[in-house]
Structures are given as structure tokens and as C-alpha cells.
């Protein structure tokens, strides 16, 4: 029997060296995996940051438009108030007639009509006005603060320049229920 050329200490040293190399490779593998997981976590956080920044920019844009949107909401609430607000409507019509150079004679309200999400309030307006004032009055009604739909208007008496024209306007005002 032939004895091996390696002594017991050499075999032990080679074995311990191999175990040390295997242990170092295992530790390097663990470090490499942890590094990859760290990079993946950074990428996820970066994506989350970009998404949050985009949301923030969107909110800042909305904030900059908030005042404009509030004004539009106020205009809408004036055009379609939450109640009939007949006194305010009469005041608006009176101001329109005065601005058009006419005299408001009478405002009559008919029975309100229920629709799905709003109410219609038929209104009849009688006034004395001249022809150009009548054109202005119709313009004021179409572009005034309250939403009005002009159904019909009639004029009687006088000619285009006569201040004595009688006008009757049938219109519908709206309000939310």
C-alpha cells in the first residue's frame, strides 16, 4: 500500500481553504443578491417618486385654476339658483329694462314645471320701450346673470323710433331643486 504524499496537516489546510473559498463565494452571492434587491427597491421608490411628483404637478395646476373654477361655480349658481329667487329675478329684469331705456310695467310668474334635475319657471314681462331698447333688452336677457330662455316676444304700437312701443316677453327661468 502506497502512502499518500500529503500529510494530514496539508489535507486539513486544503480542506479548510476549500471551505473558506466556498464560504466566501456564498457570502459574495448573498451580497450580490442584496445589492440587486436594493437596486430594485430604489427603482420602485424612484417610480413612486415620479408618480407622486406628477400628481403634485396636477394638484398645483388645479390649485392655480381653483379661483377660476370658483368663479364659474358662482356664475352657475347665479344662473341656476337653488330656489326660485323670484325677487332677485324681478330685480334683474328691472335693471335690464332700465339699462335698455324702457319702463318695466309688470312681471308675472306662471306655475313652475318640474323636470328631472331642475325646475322651469315661466315668466311674462310687460314693458314700454323703443325698438333699439328692445334689442338691447333681449341681449341683456340672453347674456344676463340668470339663465333665461326666451320663448316669445311681441311688440305693439308705434314705429321703430317711437318710445311708446308695448312689448310682451314670454321667457323661462330655471332653478335647481
Write the layout of secondary structure elements.
Layout: H1 8-79, H2 86-99, E1 103-109, E2 113-114, E3 118-129, H3 131-143, E4 148-156, E5 165-176
Antiparallel strand pairs: 1-3, 2-3, 3-5, 4-5
Helix pairs in contact: 2-3
Features:
5 strands; 56% helix; 3 helices; 177 residues; five-stranded antiparallel β-sheet; alpha+beta; Alpha-Beta Plaits; 2 domains
Write structural notes for this entry.
The chain has 177 residues and is an alpha+beta fold. The protein has two domains: 8-79; 86-176, Alpha-Beta Plaits. It has helices at 8-79, 86-99, 131-143, and strands at residues 103-109, 113-114, 118-129, 148-156, 165-176. A hairpin with a 3-residue loop joins strand 2 (113-114) and strand 3. Helix 2 crosses helix 3 (131-143). The protein is rod-shaped, with a radius of gyration of 42 Å.
Give a brief description.
The chain is of the alpha+beta class and 177 residues long.
Amino acid at each position: 500500500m502506497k502512502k499518500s504524499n500529503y500529510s494530514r496537516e496539508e489535507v486539513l489546510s486544503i480542506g479548510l481553504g476549500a471551505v473558506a473559498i466556498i464560504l466566501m463565494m456564498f457570502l459574495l452571492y448573498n451580497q450580490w443578491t442584496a445589492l440587486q434587491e436594493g437596486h430594485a427597491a430604489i427603482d420602485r421608490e424612484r417610480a413612486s417618486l415620479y408618480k407622486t411628483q406628477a400628481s403634485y404637478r396636477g394638484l398645483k395646476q388645479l390649485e392655480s385654476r381653483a379661483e377660476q373654477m370658483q368663479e364659474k361655480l358662482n356664475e352657475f349658481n347665479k344662473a341656476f339658483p337653488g330656489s326660485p329667487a323670484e325677487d332677485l329675478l324681478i330685480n334683474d329684469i328691472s335693471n335690464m329694462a332700465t339699462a335698455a331705456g324702457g319702463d318695466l310695467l309688470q312681471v308675472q310668474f306662471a306655475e313652475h314645471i318640474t323636470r328631472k334635475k331642475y325646475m322651469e319657471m315661466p315668466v311674462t314681462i310687460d314693458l314700454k320701450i323703443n325698438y333699439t331698447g328692445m334689442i338691447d333688452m333681449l341681449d341683456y336677457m340672453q347674456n344676463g346673470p340668470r339663465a333665461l330662455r326666451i320663448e316669445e316676444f311681441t311688440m305693439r304700437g308705434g314705429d321703430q323710433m317711437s318710445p311708446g312701443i308695448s312689448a310682451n316677453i314670454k321667457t323661462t327661468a330655471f332653478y335647481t331643486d
